[in-house]
Amino acid sequence: MSLVEITEASHNVNLDLKYATADNFTGKPVYARAACYLHPEAEKCMILARELAAIQGYRLHIFDAFRPSEAQWKLWHHTPDPDFLADPRRGSPHSRGVALDLTLIDSATGKVLDMGTGFDAFTPLSHHGNTEISAAAQKNRMLLMGLMTTAGWDFYRNEWWHYQLFDARDFAVLGDADLSEPLTAP
């Protein structure tokens, strides 16, 4: 199965691939290079989400998409928390190329919308429906969820940023060998 590369130029989205930098919960790069991929079915849903967001004056701001199984193991070894990370023995929707971690940017101002926590904040404050965050952040999360679910994505209740295809487990787990150039840092 070949994955589709998602770039800012080809897909008109913002990429802020956290696992290609030290700006993630591990404190070091998990990916050797900043590249974003999706399964073709997920790409179709992402394009629809992008179009729906644009109508409302927003852009998609992507933190992560396809995550090779090797990278999932690195994350799991760092923080084996099944409330926030898929156990790599079962396979993550990210490792199947059918998940996105993202937020929204206001197209007029270029500002990232306030979602009440940052990306990968492994806390109950990150849960959908959490009423301890501001009303504005709750509204922004509902906006993101509305756009994404309308475009064919399912949400994960513990992470406001995570969306996956409804039938994610029907797709094969993929790794670095499925790419022309490995993604996971040595």
From TrEMBL:
Positions annotated as active site in the UniProt record: 159
CDD domains per record: D-Ala-D-Ala_dipeptidase_Aad
InterPro entries with a match to the protein in the record: A_A_dipeptidase, Zn_M74/Hedgehog-like
Enzyme class: hydrolase
GO terms, molecular function: D-Ala-D-Ala dipeptidase activity; metallopeptidase activity; zinc ion binding
EC number: 3.4.13.22
Entry keyword Endoplasmic reticulum: no
Protein name: D-alanyl-D-alanine dipeptidase
Organism per entry: Magnetovibrio blakemorei
Taxonomy of the source species: Bacteria, Pseudomonadati, Pseudomonadota, Alphaproteobacteria, Rhodospirillales
